[in-house]
Amino acid sequence: MIERRPFVQKILKNRQTNLRVVSGLGTSTWDLMSGGDDKANFGFIGAMGQAIPFALGLAMAQPDLRILLFTGDGDTLMSLGSIATVANHPVTNLTIVVMDNESYVETGSQPTATAGKTDLEIVAKGSGISNSYTIKNEKDYDRLIKTIYEEEGPSLVVAKCQAKATPLVFPHSFDGSVSINRFMSTLKS
Amino acid sequence: MEGAIKDWRNDIYKVFKELEITMVSHVPDAGHTPLINLCEKDNEIDVVTLTTEQDGVGLSCGAFAGGRKSALLMQSSGVGNCINALALPNICRIPFLTLVSMRGEWGEFVPWQVPMGLGTPKVLEAMDVKVFRADYKEEVGSTVDAAARFAFNTNRSAAVLLSQKMIGAKQFKNG
Questions:
Q1: So what's the architecture of A4-184 in CATH?
Q2: pLDDT-derived band at A61, boundaries 50, 70, 90
Q3: pLDDT per residue over B91-144, tens digit each?
Q4: For B65, which residue in chain A has the nearest alpha carbon?
Q5: How far is A21 from chain B (nearest CA, A)?
Q6: How far is A3 from B87, CA to CA, in rounded Å?
Q7: Which of A13, A164, B16, B31 is a Cys-bridge partner for B21, taking CB atoms 3.0 to 4.6 Å apart?
Q8: Which DSSP helix (H) or strand (E) runs through B160?
């Protein structure tokens, strides 16, 4: 099992300038912000299920950048159909990393479907995202970095991680208009 | 009659071109089909088929963040699927435009369409979406133009309800 926070921080630490990072609501956003404030990040704090479609739209609009989405299994399960949409309107620059802790940790660690019979790697492959795999420990870091920066997407990586609560790390602002405008300021040429 | 129907979809398409709307997402509805076909023939417009209407809200917002304008096409039954997703353009002040072909109103044949048809303007307004409506084909172009400018100039969400009167009530019959 991966310890999610240091893993996310390690990915962010040596980030390249062509990377833009989006996170799904809840723990994924706190993970992203724990790597330090960066205008090239945009974190959801609500609108559950919308992170994958948002990342798809962004990747379509910015084909010269690499787009990385960190999100959770709960957020992903809410919009499973969006995986089919990503697969059928393919963008080569998008990597979705599902931090799969098999639980709704923020609300009391109720088990998600991935704690049961559901496997998101197989869902992704069955939906048509052929570049999908599961990682279970930090040794897979190099493989993931290659996927994020070099491989032809779309890719969906399931990162099996510990289901433990981590400290809340809030973004620069809870006001979405502030967050999106800071993020957009990094996209103007 | 067929020629007249095509005309008002052409009017919407002209607004897309004039305002540089280059991404169109949809869960298809027969009322939108001529417009979808026009957009698919246009190399400058990406057409994205969704599995649920709400994903068009996120897609549209991500595209706008990346510098592209888009529109979501759906039937009134899809509006209900979008409610929580509409928080995203609202709280981020991202312009959001949707064109809704209405069911459950003018001469409706299918009773299952009526509840969401009646609820459509109410739920949109409940989520702070500015609701425009076109009842006659002559006003479609100007109404879509006004709604699009409202959305993109004021960074708000706007919907145009396209009356079932223009689209025609669907009659189920074999053959």
A1: 3-Layer(aba) Sandwich (3.40)
A2: very high
A3: 999 999 999 999 999 888 899 999 999 999 999 999 999 999 999 999 999 999
A4: A184
A5: 12
A6: 31
A7: B16
A8: strand B157-162
Q: Which of B44, B38, B88 is nearest to B70 (CA)?
A: B44
Q: DSSP string of A129-151?
A: --EEEEE-SGGGHHHHHHHHHTS
Q: Do A55 and B62 touch (CB under 8 A)?
A: yes
Q: What is the DSSP letter of B83?
A: T
Mean pLDDT of chain B: 94
Amino acid at position B55, single letter: D
Q: Name the one residue in this structure whose structure tokens are 């931090």.
A: A99
Residue B4: pLDDT over 60: no
Give me the residue from A22, A61, A79 closest to B68, CB to CB.
A61
By C-alpha distance, the chain A residue nearest B95 is: A177
Cis status of the peptide bond prior to B34, with omega within 30 of 0: no
> How do the domains of chain A map onto residue ranges?
4-184
What pTM, to 2 d.p., does this model score? 0.96
Pairwise CB contact (< 8 Å): B88 & A50: yes
Q: Which of B54, B58, B94 minimises the CB distance to A180?
A: B94
Q: Name the residue in chain B with its Cα closest to that of A52.
A: B58
Going by pLDDT thresholds of 50, 70 and 90, the confidence category of residue B5 is very low
Cβ pairs bridging A and B (under 8 Å): 122
> What domains appear along chain B, each with residue ranges and CATH number?
2-167 (3.40.50.970)
B22 min Cα distance to partner chain A (Å): 10
